Amino acid sequence: HEWPQAAAASSESAAATGIRMESTVNTATVTNTGTIMVSAQTTGGDANAVGILVQDSNVMVPMISAPVTINNTGGTIIARNSLDGGATWTHGLAIDTSTAPNPAVINLMGSGTKVGQIYGDIDISAADVINVSAGETRFDGKINPDGTLEGGLNILSGGTLYLQDEPTANTSYDGAAVVNVDNLSIAAGGKLALQLPSYTSGSASYPTIVANTADITGATLEVRPSSSNGLYGNSYSYDNVIDAET
User: Fold this and answer.
1) From residue 100, how far is each of 53, 118, 218 by CA, in Å?
2) Quick one: which of 5, 53, 49, 66 has its CA closest to 174?
3) Tens digit of pLDDT for each residue in 216-240?
4) How far, in Å, CA of 87 to CA of 72, rounded?
5) DSSP 8-state class, residue 67
6) What is the C-alpha to C-alpha distance for residues 16 and 187, in angstroms, rounded to an integer?
7) What is the pTM of this model?
8) By C-alpha distance, which of 97, 92, 63 is closest to 174?
9) What does DSSP say about strands 93-99 and 47-56: parallel, antiparallel, or unpaired?
10) CA dist 134 to 130, 161, 191, Å?
């Protein structure tokens, strides 16, 4: 579904949400195989777009371990904000489970030759996990955009996570993809792909993963060359692409 955008004048704010679930307990499964596109647009005011939001209703109930499950199976989720009337766009929240009433499992998958695409941030809690499997998911955003290292990211055998960074002629550029998690695991047969090199305003910018613990034993790390003019320098150096205590 392509959701209508919310628009507001400069002195106002705009908020738009694609799918919103609020409850005391949530064990639902949401599967996207199409397009969820949510836009919030102003000309100077605040804008807040959210693709999929799962939140607690703040009514006290016993804790449960059964998860809410979000599947993006070859689908596209776009959550974007504009403060200049739509001339340029920045990341909204593609998926937000940070205040879900129980743990969340987010499964990012391709479907046959169709890749999954996420534009916007993903905000999770310490109990949540993101699994990348069965094909490729292209990610343009930040996982835990506030920098908190919580939750887990697993790239499973047969899965590819492509962290994008494309500043060239891109009116939706909002920096390189960044992942902040407690635990990172890339299994043998799993692949982390990075769009390199990317430069903006003379400064190097590139995708990174920061974690407390990272296990990439047997994993494939792949560079997908990117150039604004088709030319490359003789050499490039990228420090701390994966930065972990352990």
Assistant:
1) 8, 20, 34
2) 49
3) 999 999 999 988 888 888 888 888 9
4) 28
5) P
6) 37
7) 0.93
8) 92
9) parallel
10) 13, 10, 11
How does DSSP classify residue 2? B
3-state secondary structure 99-123: ECCCCEEEEEECECCECEEEECEEE
Cα-only R_g, the chain = 18
112, 155 contact by CB (below 8 A): no
Model confidence pLDDT, tens digit, residues 17-34: 999 999 999 999 999 999
As a whole number of angstroms, the distance between CA 226 and CA 217 comes to 27
CA 159: distance to chain centroid? 16
Contact between 134 and 158 (Cβ < 8 Å): yes
CB under 8 Å to 130, separation ≥6 — which residues? 106, 107, 108, 122, 124, 143, 151, 152, 153, 154, 181
Q: What six digits make up the tokens of 222?
A: 């792949």
Written as six digits, the tokens of 182 are: 């407690």
Which are the contacts of 60, defined by CB distance < 8 A and separation ≥ 6?
Answer: none
Q: For residue 218, what are its two tokens? A: 């047997």
The string of pLDDT tens digits covering residues 142-191 is: 999 999 999 999 999 999 999 999 998 999 999 999 999 999 999 999 99
